[in-house]
Amino acid sequence: MNIAANPVVEADQTIYLKDYQKPAFLVDSINLDIQVYADHTIVNAILEMQRQTEGDLVLLGRDLELKSIHLNSQQLTENDYQLDAEQLVIQNAPDRARIETQVVIHPESNTMLEGLYQAGDLFVTQNEPEGFRKITFYPDRPDVLSVFTTRVEADKKYPVLLANGNLIEKGEVDAQRHYAIWQDPTKKPSYLFACVVGDLAVLKDSYVTSEGRNVALEIYAVEKDIPKCHIAMETLKHSMRWDEEHYGLPYDLDNYMIVAVSQFNMGAMENKGLNIFNTSCVLADEEYTTDAAIMRVQSVIAHEYFHNWTGNRITCRDWFQLCLKEGLTVFRDQSFSEDLQSAAVQRIDDVAVLKAHQFPEDSGPLSHPPRPDHFVEINNFYTATVYEKGAEINRMMSTLLGKEKFRAGTDEYFRRHDGQAVTVEDWVAALTAGSGVDLSAFLTWYNQPGTPKLQAHGEYEASTQTYRLSFKQSLKAHPKYPDLKAVPIPVALALFNAETGEQYTLQSEALFENGVKDGVYLFDQDEATIEFSGINAKPVVSLLRNFSAPVNLEFDASDAELAFLMQYETNGFNQWQATQTLLERILLNGHAVESYLQAMKNTVPALVNQDPLLASRIFDVPTEGYLGSRIDQHYSPVDIQEKREALLNTLARELGAFCKETYLSLDPDLQKEFSQAMGVRALKNIMLSLMARQGDTEAFDLAHQQYQNTGNMSERLGALRVLVWNDAPQAESCLQDFYDRFKDEALSLDQWFTVQASHPNATAETIHTLTQHPDYDLGTPNRIRSVSGGLNMNPVNTWSFGVQHYIHLAKYLDEKNPILGSRLLQVLSRWYTLDEPQRSQVQVALETLKPLVKSKNVVETLNSMLNV
Ligand code: TRP
Ligand code: ZN
Fold first, then answer.
1. 728 inside domain
2. Which of 97, 450, 555, 695 is the 20 to 30 A CA-CA neighbour of 366?
3. 509 and 488, same structural domain?
4. In which domain, by residue range, is 499 found?
């Protein structure tokens, strides 16, 4: 009957926020029956629908083979409805409509990892944002909430049959097959539906909520990975407690299940009561995964759990509101992680991600507001802007309100909107009502693209002991958003006595009383000046402490003042920021390196002992990729690489003895806390890499010993990197050893691919060899990314032979997995900043791709990229 291919982008398929209309019909309940067979799956659905406004009854469906459809028990024929590649429409439907459909789908050949798909020996779903329409005909939009009952039937060789909610029945069909029936009592949109069929082992635990509910906790994974699930389980319980304590939000069902899948497009998915996770975001074990990966597991576990309230209980009215749930949930998981390790270091890591991904995105052809007002393919909008900038907007409002008022605001949000599908306006209105502080000006942040530039200028007047600080904000013009407005910018700041290093107690009428210890000034005009009195000498000023707003700060502090902040700033984040600003000036603007080196020598020895984790970040040197993103024209990756290498060599030479001494004196096993041990490991690896720059054979020997004598992946991989990237004589044998040890451990093997793909002198040949390796697999996004992501760690390589790599992948994935294809192509989005002849070469390559791709995902991305 009707099998529609992946639709081709024709004419203008843009969808606009302003065109939002309520659906004519809602669904009171849905009964699903999913029968999985080796070569097809049958899906029977019964929808109890009810009219809410006038209009047609619209069921969305894609790639579905329709076998039969009944309306109120009457079989419909092709004359009774209109069916195209996207939807089935019934005109003049009665106000109460019971729709019964039978369709056939093919999870076994679904490579898009969307809808129901087979991954190895496992059948799983991914329905956000629009996957459910690939399972059955349904009003697949987030403002239709329904009660789901699901029967899952499969061969007994798949003992695990899961769906959302409570298991209400389980039994045999015949000798060969069995079934399970699940009912989810909570009304939910279809994007939160999940089911799983497979042969998995399970780790069980339980948790008692603040309301006394006993919740069964289960993590499903392949048998050999179960020992790697304990950290995730502990983190889950910790998240549950944290949400009760910080937001007053207890869990609402009797069970919470997590399933680990090795083929998954993103990090994880918050399906109600049945999260599905990329293995990379659930498996955590010192022997097989790095410290950074363990931190990521903890933040993603918390993220998906927190979605239960911010996303599931209160969901989005439409997909333009995606940042309502994602921005808030990222802000919540970042706050959770700040409690797990040092808050300053967590903030450093989060801001580093923001600046490395969101800032470049927002300054290029893919720039869009956190809440876009149009799109072609919603999957292209799961972006750093929606997630990370969205989180920053919430952080700004929370900074302004302070803990208590922010909590009053969120309480009001949950009181007003539980069980609803709402908008960003509803969120800001509830925060305003609950806190008593008008936050409506923050809506501008949601609606405009671009990173504001914040210019600050300070003047000291000795005669009156007054310090004046003037601010100016501006945004780069954007063709699609002509009237850009000033945004409210909370500026957390501190003034230091330049002689003593002490902080002034701030007196200024402009400062906001908010219960946080930093002074915060809310700058919400185009220009303004504030005054501080009682300042007895020209102060050193630290602005945007803790990165209080996602802006590009241009402050005319001297290099000496930044060096001062590297030493005396008590806010760990701004201490780090001072080093980064100084390094940017050195690497991009040709400033002298001396103040930086001197400040490092003054600061680092004490810090290494006091706070090795923070010390490990103070050694950060902005990556070549980040530095490149700061350049808008005539960008030469080779030039940036040379300058950065020269700086690292200078640092290594100047601190040579210190590095060795520090390396030998540090022992992670002496640390009590995981986060401190992680800091020591990170610091030791940095010391080792600086030592190895000198071509020091002793450094290679130390790296070799570290490689061999550890059972910890961060130590082993840190050492392997140093050996491989410096072409040490031990490199080959260690790579072989690593492969032999971990060839059956996918996540560890990913690291083996990455360490080679990210070799600074990797060539097209290196990448070719890796992608021809028997363990390379185009069906596993993690494995693709292990090579593509590694390659992209060296922009010189990305912009030379890498261009063809990304273009080939985009072309191949256009059909097989367009979500991933579109994402990988975005690596090239800043092509237009390159110096000639590279700029034209990449342009030609992108133009050549144009006629070869069809998916909305890749076409929309490519069109935007070429439209600069
Ligand atoms: N809602 C998920 C999260 O942020 C995101 C997600 C998971 C997703 N899988 C996806 C988005 C696939 C698009 C496609 O937690
Ligand atoms: Zn999320």
1. no
2. 555
3. yes
4. 453-549
Which of 525, 549, 573 is a domain's end point? 549
pLDDT tens string 84-113: 999 999 999 999 999 999 999 999 999 999
**Which of 126, 301, 387 gets mutated to test ligand 1 (max ligand atoms within 8 A of its CB)?**
126
- For residue 858, the CA-to-ligand 1 centroid distance in Å is 18
pLDDT at position 511 over 90: no
Q: Ligand 1: which of 333, 382, 857 to mutate, judged by most atoms within 8 Å of the beta carbon?
A: 382
- Residue 514: per-residue pLDDT: 61
Residue bearing the CA closest to ligand 1, atom 7: 269
Among the three residues 481, 516, 549, which one is the final residue of a domain in this structure? 549
Task: Looking at the structure, tell me whether residues 27 and 150 fall in a common domain.
Answer: yes
Is residue 616 within 8 Å of 666, Cβ to Cβ? no
In a domain, 147, yes or no: yes
Ligand nearest to the CA of 266: 1
pLDDT digits (tens, 9 = 90+) for 624-633: 999 999 999 9
Among the options 304, 361, 377, 569, which is catalytic?
A: 304
- Active-site annotation holds for 304: yes
Question: Model-level pTM greater than 0.90?
Answer: yes
- If one counts every other C-beta atom within 10 angstroms of the C-beta of residue 370, the result is 29
Three-state SS across 712-736? CHHHHHHHHHHHHHCCCCCHHHHHH
Do residues 367 and 430 both lie within one domain? yes
For atom 2 of ligand 1, the residue with the nearest CA is 269
In 736-757, which positions are buried (b, 16+ CB within 10 angstroms) versus exposed (e)? eebeeebeebbbbbbbbbbbbb
Question: What CATH number does the domain containing 141 carry?
Answer: 2.60.40.1730
Residue 330: partners with Cβ closer than 8 Å, 6 or more residues away: 303, 387, 388, 390, 391
Ligand 1, residues at Cβ distance < 6 Å: 126, 128-129, 265-266, 268-270, 303-304, 326, 379, 382, 819
